[in-house]
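Task 17 of the worksheet. Students: predict the tertiary structure of the chain below and write it out as structure tokens. Keep your answer in the requested format; marks are given for formatting as well as content.
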Amino acid sequence: MESNFNILMFPWLAHGHVYPYLELAKNLSTKNFNIFFCSTSIILSSIKETLDRNSPCGISINLVELHLPSSPDLPQNYHTTKNLPPHLMPKLFDSFQNSNSSFSSIISSLKPDMLIYDVFQPWAAKIATSLSIPAVHFATSGATAYSFYHHHFIHKNSPFPYDGIYLRDYERKALQSMVLSRDKNDQDFAFGHFSMSCEIVLMKTCNGLEGKYLDYLSVLCKKKIVPVGPLVTQADESDENHSDIMKWLSTKDRFSTVFISFGSENYLSKDQMGEIAKGLEFSNVNFIWVVRFPHGERVSIEEALPKGFLDRVKQRGMIVQGWAPQAKILGHPSIGAFVSHCGMSSTIESVYFGVPVIAVPLKLDQPLNARLVVEAGIGVEVVRDANGHLSSDEIFNAINTAIFDKTGEVMRLKAAQMSEMMKSEEAYAMNETAEQLRRICMEHKHHIEEVNIH
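Model answer:
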């Protein structure tokens, strides 16, 4: 194996970005790369805890602090999307965009052999390129959504070539209003993160799940798309903080229990929570439901749910507030389906553990990930009305399909097969990733040496 190369990794400040970057960093650290991980102090302290608690021998990651411009409205404990009050999200985004001078100092000082950067900072790739450092984009969203949006960005109104992937009218309107709020001249916001990437784009996915969309995206963006594999964080067996959940799960029959979670940064309205609660109650299914409220909201679970719900379901339901060990729960044999928002990490975890998805997408790439699992035969989507409203009847229907119908058995069989396929790809994907990165570093090093000679 070639001598070590230094890689600087620079994710966006959201949990769903930081932890895939951290998993990739840990994997590359075992492949003879020296890893420098750049983020804010609040995120780095969380990462240090994670690495100290649950990191195999031989993994060494250097943590590098990014300084955001100081602001009384955005103290350091808010330099992350986790627990950030929603009204401060635009301020955090702007502050991050204005951290380029801090980042420039970091990369100029470290002089790494490569930068791996995230979706919201093509400017970091420009800084790296100006210093003759190759920059590679690592996308934490999947190929299905990227190929869909990239197709429409290039081909405007022509239909996407795969019928199973589409947006409903209310989803399209929500997306358009989000895009219209951006600067129309901001080309970097569209696909600058792809165009700035050196030769390849890394993507958190697998060929078995998204093969045809990986191929199509490669054609659209004229880059080789390299799937890095699932990057699932393995459960820490020594974690006793949630042993009550696992003990409770162990009292339930195989495939009898539904796990409900909408990710670490999505919040349901009171109406949505009410409809889900009624659907769960009607279905008579066992369930674990992770409930979250925006930081600073003083709402009790009793207030947020229908009156008397907790008493009526206490024998078969468990409500967990804040956080639960998702990978550990999905890996338990009692789990029969996962009610999910279909963020890419959650979608991949569901497939990795062979659990069918009951899809309740909320925004961005989630509707397209939902259509992906339905197309693959490993999920059912909760149907909404024309305005995008959830109903308890459709929640009930989807749970019934996934847990009690023959269709659910077929989905579980397909999910188990896809799980095996994903796990069999895992080592190869990471070896191929390391090989591609090593090749780019070596070619660049030789190029610099030749330029210096001449």
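Marker's comment: The radius of gyration is 22 Å. The first helix runs from residue 15 to 29.
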